[in-house]
C-alpha cells in the first residue's frame, strides 16, 4: 500500500500564531488609550467646572497628548511646591497673613493634611505622641481650625517642626491657588511635550 503524499505547501488546519500576535498588538493601543482617557476623566472630574473646558479637547487627542498633559500637570504641582518651600525656608519671606486672609481654606487644608502625614511618618520631629495633645476648641471653631491656629502659634514661637509645617502648608496653598494657571499652561505645552516624548521613545526603540 502506498502512502499519500503531503503537498509541499500544506499547512495545518488550525490558526497560526502570527494572526493571534497581530490581534494582541491591535488591541493593546486601544487598551492603553482607554486607560489614559479613564485617568484623564478622573483627573478632570476633580477640577472646577470653569477649568474642565480647557481639557475637553484632550479626550479626542492621541494617547501621547493625554500622557503628556498628565505628566505636565504633576510637574506643575511638584516643582512649585518644593520651590516655594525652599523660598520660605531659606528667606524671611513668608506671606502667611496674606494667604490666610485670601486663601484660608487652602492653608487650613495644607496644615491639616501635612501635619497628619508628618506625624504618621515621624518626620521633622513629629510623632504619634503629638496626636494625643489636641488643641482646645473655642466656640465657633472646628477641630481643623483649631489645629491650624495652634500650628501658626507654634510657628510664631519659633518651634522648628511647626516652622517647616507652616512653610509647606503655604507652598501647598499657593500651588493650589495657581491651579487655573497650571491647567492652562499644561494644555498649552502638551503638543510640544508630546513631541519630545515621541522622539525619546523612537530613539530608545532604535537602540539594539
Automatic annotation (TrEMBL):
<keyword id="KW-0812">Transmembrane</keyword>
<dbReference type="GO" id="GO:0005739">
    <property type="term" value="C:mitochondrion"/>
</dbReference>
<dbReference type="InterPro" id="IPR018811">
    <property type="entry name" value="MRX11"/>
</dbReference>
<protein>
    <recommendedName>
        <fullName>Mitochondrial seryl-tRNA synthetase</fullName>
    </recommendedName>
</protein>
<feature type="transmembrane region" description="Helical">
    <location>
        <begin position="177"/>
        <end position="198"/>
    </location>
</feature>
<feature type="transmembrane region" description="Helical">
    <location>
        <begin position="66"/>
        <end position="90"/>
    </location>
</feature>
<keyword id="KW-1133">Transmembrane helix</keyword>
<dbReference type="Pfam" id="PF10306">
    <property type="entry name" value="FLILHELTA"/>
</dbReference>
<keyword id="KW-0472">Membrane</keyword>
Amino acid at each position: 500500500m502506498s502512502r499519500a503524499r503531503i503537498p509541499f505547501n500544506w499547512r495545518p488546519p488550525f490558526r497560526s500564531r502570527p494572526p493571534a500576535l497581530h490581534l494582541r498588538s491591535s488591541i493593546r493601543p486601544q487598551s492603553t488609550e482607554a486607560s489614559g482617557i479613564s485617568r484623564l476623566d478622573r483627573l478632570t472630574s476633580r477640577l472646577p467646572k470653569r477649568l474642565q473646558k480647557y481639557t475637553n479637547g484632550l479626550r479626542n487627542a492621541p494617547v501621547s497628548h493625554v500622557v503628556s498633559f498628565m505628566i505636565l500637570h504633576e510637574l506643575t504641582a511638584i516643582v512649585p511646591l518644593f520651590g516655594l518651600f525652599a523660598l520660605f525656608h531659606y528667606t524671611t519671606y513668608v506671606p502667611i497673613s496674606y494667604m490666610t486672609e485670601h486663601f484660608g481654606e487652602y492653608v487650613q487644608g495644607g496644615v491639616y493634611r501635612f501635619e497628619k502625614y508628618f506625624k504618621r511618618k515621624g518626620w521633622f520631629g513629629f510623632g504619634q505622641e503629638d496626636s494625643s495633645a489636641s488643641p482646645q476648641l473655642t466656640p465657633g471653631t472646628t477641630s481643623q481650625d483649631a489645629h491650624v491656629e495652634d500650628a501658626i502659634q507654634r510657628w510664631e514661637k519659633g518651634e522648628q517642626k511647626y516652622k517647616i509645617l507652616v512653610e509647606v502648608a503655604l507652598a501647598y496653598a499657593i500651588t493650589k491657588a495657581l491651579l487655573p494657571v497650571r491647567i492652562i499652561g499644561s494644555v498649552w505645552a502638551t503638543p510640544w511635550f508630546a513631541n519630545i516624548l515621541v522622539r525619546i521613545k523612537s530613539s530608545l526603540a532604535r537602540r539594539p
